[in-house]
Fold this protein.
Amino acid sequence: MYTNYFTNLNYQKLCDLRNHVRDVTNRTKPLWHGTIYIGTEPLYLECHVKWLAEKINLYFVNVKEHYCDPRAKKLYILRAGVKDFIVQPDCFTTNVYFTQNHLCTKPDLIVHNNCVYLHYDDEYYMSVTSEDYTNFYHLGENHLLMRVLNYIFDSSDNIMLHGAVVGYKDYGILITGLSGYGKSTLSAHCLAQGMDFIGDDRVMLSKSNQNVFASPIYTTLSLSAPVPGIQPVKTISCPNSTKDIVILDRKKIAQKIKIRAVLEPHNIKTNKPEIKPTKKPPVITKLCADYCNFSLLTRTINPLHDYKKISNLLANADFFIMNLSNNISDNANAIFDLAKEKCNEI
């Protein structure tokens, strides 16, 4: 998949498109509306897409249906035709439009397959022309809404990262790695061992008073096999996937934890897990590349800016690499022992 960048988007055309989708929103009753909290950030959501509306209360950690937080940004998800305004690209192309002639700001319009994302002042619109396309994704991992949230809340003090977060007391650990590296399974075993759990796929990092806190977004764990000690509220089998979506009891999910360490697992498969300190730049580089690629609606606008932002947010964190053993429980115990040891040093 590749991306086309277009600058100097016709502002009047952007206004016309926004008025069109807004008119559709005003003429139809939403199937779900209320405030969801992405970390500490409120988002007022009106959803007109049936399958998505049915999952919001179940999949998000902090939800207030039929309530509009006065601080909230607003996102409208609807079924509305937009072909009269823009040319639909093929499924392998993403078109990104800016009203200003530089690539350092958030895009005003993104056209991705049969979905359109529109940013206008403090309002955001996502128009889906086919429910079949979006239904291929589930909310907990790689879902289009997750990628839109990434744009809405991205700032110097907030970033949504692809990773798992577990911890013990005041010591939170961000587990990094590309999809398929086993973060979900590892974090699930950490939860089963008694560690605090924030999330296994997408977490929000927010900076406050020079400290960085991770907050949960989803109630889900994406697992390829059951984990002893994990009792799901519900398990959903996804088509075209070898994983099941496990819905956790919200009481099992911590509200926030201070990030004090970043851990990069390596699938070396030793007899005994080994955790050792490592240098920060290589881990940040991989984390940044993963952040850029997993937005998927577009490649990063400014890679250097992303690197500096992630590096600054994690400036006070310890960095470790972990050589994994063949025993997942032993790996989880090693992470737990690290967190307890570091807590005693604080």
